[in-house]
Amino acid sequence: MIITENNEKILIKEILKNLGVNEEDANIVTQVVLDADLKGFTSHGIGRFPQYIKTIDANNIKITGDIEIVRETESIAVIDGHSLFGQVVAYKAMELAIQKAKKTGIGMVGVHNSNHFGVTGFYSDLATKENCIGLTFANTEPAIAPLNAKKPVIGTNPIAISIPNHKTFIATDMATSTTARGKILEWERKGEELPPNTALDKDGNPTTDPSEALDGSILAFGSFKGYALAFIIELMCGPLVGAACGSDVKGTANYKEKCTKGDLFVAIDPDKFVGYDVFEVGIDKYIDEIREDGGFVPGDIEDKRIADHKENGMPIDETLYNQLKEICDGLDIDIDKYIDQ
Question: How buried is residue 119: exposed, middle or buried, by Cβ count under 10 Å (0-12/13-18/19+)?
Fold first, then answer.
């Protein structure tokens, strides 16, 4: 089954509006969901959408209200998201970081009391649209066990960095674990095994069974290097922004629990450093050097996926179709208008 870019956009918006979500928020959530699928991060796109609906039903995503800036300086702010859609809170947080960067050179906005916000790179990409460098960090429910331990107390803790450039999409977006938890949930949904050396079961033994991995722990990428990076992000997105960390982080995968994780959004304006034009000339020269030898630039793979998915649509597996159909049936929406069997 296939869903086109336009049909996914219409379907997500129709579901959200039928649930009572306002136009602005529905547009933001739809943008983020679609961005993930176009880039090939299906675990964080429409595949994650049923979780959001369940979280609304559990009253852990609020569909009305607004964010609150609880602390602020010229370059820094801390936001209470009041349990709104994570996508909406994150979008507004990065917008504020960009505004501050345009004034002072750098803006940093921390968030607590929000929700799962989808694909991390969407928000760092937002900064590039204003000729700023964007960085996004988040912590999640525990999934990684510390080195020399078995109990997960660190999240998969993603990091995304996007660099503005008028010729090439330059971005990296990755979990600090070998794979994102969302991908393991997706493999479980599809009945597929994990790649080797991805996760451990609850007894600390290697496993390729997604269910065992979800009950156990995911390995950090690059051994101690990934673990150390995940650890630092845990602190930056927990104590620094007034959110939980470690085993106190809940609600990013379990819709029945209030989400307690934190996020940190950073925007940097190169024009305040050397001038934007000088910055971009240096980037172009370096990229040319890489491409002359046939090298890839971070972002090239996503760029190709976007082009392919815009032309050919995006796959929907049978289990996901059934989950979406159940949602649509409850809202009197004909899902088959949007999905090609």
Answer: buried
